[in-house]
Amino acid sequence: MAKILILPGDGIGPEVMAEVRRIADTLAETHGLAFEFEEGNVGGAAIDAEGAPLAEETLQRALNADAVLLGAVGGPKWDSLPFDQKPERALLRLRKELGLFANLRPAIVFDPLADASSLKPELVRGLDLMIVRELTGGVYFGEPRGIEDIGGGQRRAVNTQVYTSEEIRRVAAVAFELARKRGNRVVSTEKANVMETGVLWREEVTALHAESYNDVSLEHMYADNCAMQLVRQPKQFDVIVTDNLFGDMLSDEAAMLTGSLGMLPSASLGAPDAQGRRKAMYEPVHGSAPDIAGQGVANPLATLLSFAMMLRYSFDHGDAADAVEGAVTRVLDRGLRTPDLVQPGTTKVSTREIGDEIRREI
Amino acid sequence: MAKILILPGDGIGPEVMAEVRRIADTLAETHGLAFEFEEGNVGGAAIDAEGAPLAEETLQRALNADAVLLGAVGGPKWDSLPFDQKPERALLRLRKELGLFANLRPAIVFDPLADASSLKPELVRGLDLMIVRELTGGVYFGEPRGIEDIGGGQRRAVNTQVYTSEEIRRVAAVAFELARKRGNRVVSTEKANVMETGVLWREEVTALHAESYNDVSLEHMYADNCAMQLVRQPKQFDVIVTDNLFGDMLSDEAAMLTGSLGMLPSASLGAPDAQGRRKAMYEPVHGSAPDIAGQGVANPLATLLSFAMMLRYSFDHGDAADAVEGAVTRVLDRGLRTPDLVQPGTTKVSTREIGDEIRREI
Ligand SMILES: CC(C)[C@H](C(=O)O)[C@@H](O)C(=O)O
Ligand SMILES: CC(C)[C@H](C(=O)O)[C@@H](O)C(=O)O
């Protein structure tokens, strides 16, 4: 039986995850899903319970699971901890140890929510773009790194951006494969006008494209221009592939364009093994929202849609994923909204209530 | 007599610069400005004329000038040149050799243009934020850098992000000083949750603030969150201070929020010398727009407003700067627009025509 490790984490993580578990129970009945669920601590919750943001035992369980579903990490309680003890360390460690090099971040505008965007509705209605962010390389993990004293009361800090041909090609391949199932267009983004890592990025993506994916349209765009174009005309994009740091910023910018962060899932995938199975972790794009935690008002839909991505990408349960996504659309169409999405003319519901309605729709 | 070096550059650079020169002549009469203007080549134009994007002699003249006014560089003609021969090299070299460590990029929405933004007008009307970007350090200039063969057909590219205490403090000081003359609020942006350079950045900004600027409000924000917040609620910001690479992306994103790139100036400043004079270069935020070059339809206002910034920051001619900015506002209020800004109900004018109207208003 497939094993799923659930890491609810901090803030609103536990309450949204509880809702997703209940919906998963419903799906087990309706769609015959059979999963073994385990739970573990991560982030601040793990610091409090186990003295570190990711216990060795939890990491082992993640390595042994068929997929990981994560809630959110972080909060003011742990903000003043030193760099290498913060809750976020757990995320970085999980990504690296599980080899999750491809981070898929869709930015989708659900039709009934188009008005929630800061952008004019005509610019975002129907938006459906996918950012593929490299997740285990670049400046996030490059050595040397650190802060040193250089005398005279001065310090000097260093980080290193490193990419190899292989790291670039494997994430670009994920982007091209995805594009083939979507709009068949990839925009590759870097700063090749300033950084050698960008030059290599562009050359390798271009070569891979010529070798294996020349049926897909490919465009190169500098990262600063991409940050502009996302605001100017987001619907020009289908798939964007970029490095770890640019991907961090561009995917958050793209997410905010939708106006409904509470709706956005993500998937982080590793390389396929001999059986074609990839290690994978799924999580909502939003954070732990400590200000509303414990009040039962958090929006569980991004975590639920992350679970749907898991069903689709890790377990080939497209039918069950469709059922979840369809139920979400219908519940929104009926005007039900958690407080983060409430607008005039809609009905405010709690975390539990929207969960119940989703189960009913499934 | 103060010396100004004019570098028109490529694409629309020469034609917008010609217009600004004519307006400067008018100001000489109305406001008694007395400047000595020199011209030089930069970017693609310099590659064609002198074999390199920035001739040594031009660099010397820039070093000897009291201020530099640059048009724009780049174009398809030079796009396939190798990394270190591209037109953009000239910009990077000028910044570094002149020591222009503080790049001031205002994102201002002119009231009659609020509808041009992708964002809902109520989110941008009255927007006036200033991004202070570090311009001579970080990953743009850090060593080691390069691409090496690592065998097996694989290559490895490296760039280095470096910051010292001093580099961080001097640009932060510029941001705090500017904030005092504006809304008195600074947001400092980095990725201290992932990068040691961000940790040092945050610590030095915090220390400088406590020592010398605790009358200014200071907030720290991760760069990915800043990319989001700019879309969500841009008017929350007064001054944003950030590093070279984050500043590149965030300032372009912020510029695009205004919807009228053709209106945005920038200033790049060095350290004050014994007489309190700073080396300085002024340039529009927009690029060389090769697609419309030579047609007489380019918008000269961003370059003109860059010249106004020069009058204010380099020559203490606030009165003449006010006159320029006032004339720009009145011309827009009268509904005159170059093609990039034309909307129903406005009147389309050429580069020359809008220049003439500005001169009349002055
Ligand atoms: C929390 C942080 C370390 C993380 C990152 O920078 O990758 C986050 O911003 C994200 O995008 O998942
Ligand atoms: C042209 C390029 C080198 C430059 C940069 O990245 O700094 C540009 O994008 C800018 O922001 O002035």
From TrEMBL, chains A, B:
GO molecular function: 3-isopropylmalate dehydrogenase activity; magnesium ion binding; NAD binding
InterPro entries: IsoCit/isopropylmalate_DH_CS (IPR019818), IsoPropMal-DH-like_dom (IPR024084), Isopropylmalate_DH (IPR004429)
Cofactor requirement: Mg(2+); Mn(2+)
Cofactor note: Binds 1 Mg(2+) or Mn(2+) ion per subunit.
Binding site for NAD(+): 75-88, 287-299
Pfam families assigned: Iso_dh (PF00180)
Ranges where the Isopropylmalate dehydrogenase-like domain occurs: 3-358
CC per GO annotation: cytosol
EC number from the UniProt entry: 1.1.1.85
Cellular compartment(s): Cytoplasm
PROSITE patterns: IDH_IMDH (PS00470)
Reaction(s) this enzyme catalyzes, per UniProt: (2R,3S)-3-isopropylmalate + NAD(+) = 4-methyl-2-oxopentanoate + CO2 + NADH
Marked site positions, Important for catalysis: 140, 191
Record GO biological process: L-leucine biosynthetic process
Signal sequence extent: none
Residues that bind Mg(2+): 224, 248, 252
Pathway where it operates: Amino-acid biosynthesis; L-leucine biosynthesis; L-leucine from 3-methyl-2-oxobutanoate: step 3/4
Binding of substrate, residues: 95, 105, 133, 224
Keywords for this protein: Amino-acid biosynthesis, Branched-chain amino acid biosynthesis, Cytoplasm, Leucine biosynthesis, Magnesium, Manganese, Metal-binding, NAD, Oxidoreductase
Family: Belongs to the isocitrate and isopropylmalate dehydrogenases family. LeuB type 1 subfamily.
Function: Catalyzes the oxidation of 3-carboxy-2-hydroxy-4-methylpentanoate (3-isopropylmalate) to 3-carboxy-4-methyl-2-oxopentanoate. The product decarboxylates to 4-methyl-2 oxopentanoate.
Binding partners and assembly: Homodimer.
Protein name per its UniProtKB record: 3-isopropylmalate dehydrogenase
Lineage of the species this protein comes from: Bacteria, Pseudomonadati, Pseudomonadota, Alphaproteobacteria, Rhodospirillales
